[in-house]
Amino acid sequence: MRILCTGEMLIDFTPVADPQAAAGEGGNTYKANPGGAPANVAVSAARNGIKAAFLGKMGNDDFGRLLLKTLKDNNVEPLVPELTDEATTTLAFVTLDADGDRSFTFARKPGADMLLSEEDVERADISEWDIVHAGSVSQSGGASSTERDAVLLALKKAKAADKLVSFDINYRDKIWGVDDCMKESEKIYPLTDLLKISEEELVFAGGEDNIPAFMKEYDITVTVLTRGGEGARIYYYKKNDAQEAAADWTATADPDVFYKEIEAMKVIKVVDTTGAGDAYWGGFLSSLLMQGVKGTGDISMDKLEIAGRYGAVSGGLCIQKSGGIPAIPAREEIEAVLNS
Q1: What residue ranges do the domains of the chain occupy?
Q2: What does pTM read for this prediction?
Q3: Distance between CA atoms of residues 121 and 115, nearest Å
Q4: pLDDT of amino acid 21
Q5: Domain 2-338: what homologous superfamily?
């Protein structure tokens, strides 16, 4: 059970209540937490007992050293352990609204994560890993970013080696525009077996009603539409006629594509949604691996439902704590909820 995550690892400056603020004045201070969507997924997998590695670059500065230590402390193998002097570690400043929902402002002009090279990818044996995961932020650097080509190369190598390719659209409007993100993501869709998309990102699939056609166009086996507190909708493109459709899955207008609603974990108080989607996806992918999924032929509706419920608990536990990686739960925490 092995997963390789490639792309950005950065520092999330997460707001915490300022204990020095006068009564009634409010105010925040900021805590530096390790984060970055692909790195979050890698840590989530490692905390679920999956062999995990991270392929990305960090700056030769205090923040980069913190991130490298975080990977090692969480049993995630850093495939590029050398810190770069060419750019500083990328920083993200998190703003939380009254419901704990977050937005980001980035200091990344350039950031060290943009400097991952094709040579770095060539040094990594992609064929060792059962799943290779990435997100769209790795494609956002434009012509000045070597990371864009490097991550695309890693996914191409994974596909050529018959490994599962996972892609999270993970659009960030403070980094680039929808059209640019769509253009670069279209290069990755044909490589993708497992796609994560949020309600805010449905434009990338042509709207929710177009998801079945979108999946068939790019030969995507699984698409998970995350819907925050409303849970998730798992779409499955059934390519094997011999496999009988599960009775409790709903048929779409396309006879080959079915979906299943998975409820979100009930949470009394949402503290911080930073990293929640990554905790969900890390749990989801980990569950598939724990169920013996190593290729699209191993996927079934029953396994997807189990993975969906596992991911929902992982995400639900995450939002009850502050910060990205510090809030990601371990396998024993998730199983304790599922067994209760």
Answers
A1: 2-338
A2: 0.92
A3: 12
A4: 46
A5: Ribokinase (3.40.1190.20)
